[in-house]
């Protein structure tokens, strides 16, 4: 199996077996202001929202995780079947392997998502570094691979810097993103992979014409840490040390969300989102939806029903937060009062000076 595909299998194994979580996303520092007289019926609260014209039952995104190895087909099948049943959004992992390797079993790890989720909002995924090698037709091929409703371009340069075989040439990526955003047949989402997007970068992306920004901030799964484990396995001690040193690097998710919404009107908050309450806080901060990745991985290994159960739990947690803030709809939740405390507040204040 080629290197790119084997790497995908390594990533899933490490996430399942090793400590790859960091703290500091900032949600613990955000308090939604309680409404003691909500004057609404909890069960009549409207959690639906619209993303790129597609109505979702709740502002929940199953974030890009995997694909590119036959072992990942089962995971993507369960995630996509759950997205279909619950009407939430889902992204696939990087499609680089599917574009570059001629292998039917490998390709199925991606195509399975549309096969089992004909009506779900699904988005594809390519790396910004790969845009320097691909033309627009290649990205359209990734869209066609899963009949995608949108395409994510991921920014993972810290991860690449830790990988012994990483692609560390970031020159020209913004221009390439602008070219894709201008010419692609579906909306373009630019997403980080765990280190956040600052206000300045979100502004550059907005100016480049991208349709949404997914902040994927610091505070959840650390890809620097994951690559440190991979480096250790092949004896790349210096890269392992770099990965550990930068394990908690990045803009915290709450800070990144607040800053990104200043620059772009469609922001997805991910990175350390672990509950429906976190999603509610993200929406109050201005996000359009909240995304989770690692929390879905274990349930996906158990099967579709386990993924559906998690989505229903997240939805009820979100609905409860909406009830006790007096928010009858997601739009009203975006105007809910909140307070930011602690380190996150200090970070925001220092950034605003």
Automatic annotation (TrEMBL):
Its main location: cytoplasm. Pfam families: FMN_dh. Residues 21-95, 169-336 form the FMN-dependent dehydrogenase domain. The keyword Flavoprotein applies. Substrate binds at residues 7-8, 94-96, 159. GO terms for molecular function: FMN binding; isopentenyl-diphosphate delta-isomerase activity; magnesium ion binding; NADPH binding; oxidoreductase activity. It is found in: Cytoplasm. FMN binds at residues 64-66, 94, 125, 191, 221, 272-274, 293-294. The keyword Flavoprotein applies. One of its GO terms (biological process) is isoprenoid biosynthetic process. One of its GO terms (cellular component) is cytoplasm. It catalyses: isopentenyl diphosphate = dimethylallyl diphosphate. Mg(2+) binds at residue 160. It comes from the Archaea. Belongs to the IPP isomerase type 2 family. Involved in the biosynthesis of isoprenoids. Catalyzes the 1,3-allylic rearrangement of the homoallylic substrate isopentenyl (IPP) to its allylic isomer, dimethylallyl diphosphate (DMAPP). This is Isopentenyl-diphosphate delta-isomerase. The lineage of its organism: Archaea, Methanobacteriati, Methanobacteriota, Stenosarchaea group, Halobacteria.
